Amino acid sequence: MELASPVGQGGLFLLQFIVGLIIFALMLRFLLRATYADWNHPIVQFVAKVTNPLCAPLNKALPAKGRWDWSAIITAIIIQALFVIAIGFLTDRSFGVPFIVLASSTEIVNQLLDMMFWLIIIQAVLSWISPGNNPNTVIFDQLTQPILAPFRRLVPPMGGIDLTPIVAILAIKLFQIVVVGSITQAAQQMIG
């Protein structure tokens, strides 16, 4: 299949979409567990049901303990690595193992940070338009409170306005640009 052709572009888009959807579900599973989200919430149950078959093999070797579901992260990295290998195959390029590991790991970290970024924005918007304890939006509170808690210790509310979402978003984006960007740049230099 020629990637420059419309059929090739469509196939690549479909592959990226499916891999992106699977990794999104795995990252969400990781965050739901890490933040102690309510396991009776329908969204949490849906994510667990969809991702359980993917995580089951690693869960046998690496059972989830406490709040960290490492099987979700490792499964996501493996799927991303397979995607990088597939891209190399489709473009007649050969990637070394160090590049595949670095590229896959940084992509997963980037996607996790992007998810945290958007969850904070959604939670902030929902807190303005639907303040109070809304059962439909409480999952966003549960997901973002542990992320925002360290920033709340550093930045107290000013005049009744909580500025911690802005500080958290700034920290997330700076970490992505400086730390993850530097590692990604090092990985790209491996392929010349």
Automatic annotation (TrEMBL):
Keywords: Membrane, Transmembrane, Transmembrane helix. It comes from the Bacteria. Belongs to the YggT family. Signal peptide: none annotated. PANTHER family: PROTEIN COFACTOR ASSEMBLY OF COMPLEX C SUBUNIT B CCB3, CHLOROPLASTIC-RELATED (PTHR33219:SF14), YLMG HOMOLOG PROTEIN 2, CHLOROPLASTIC (PTHR33219). Pfam families: CCB3_YggT (PF02325). This is YggT family protein. The keyword Membrane applies. The chain crosses the membrane at residues 12-32, 70-91, 163-183.
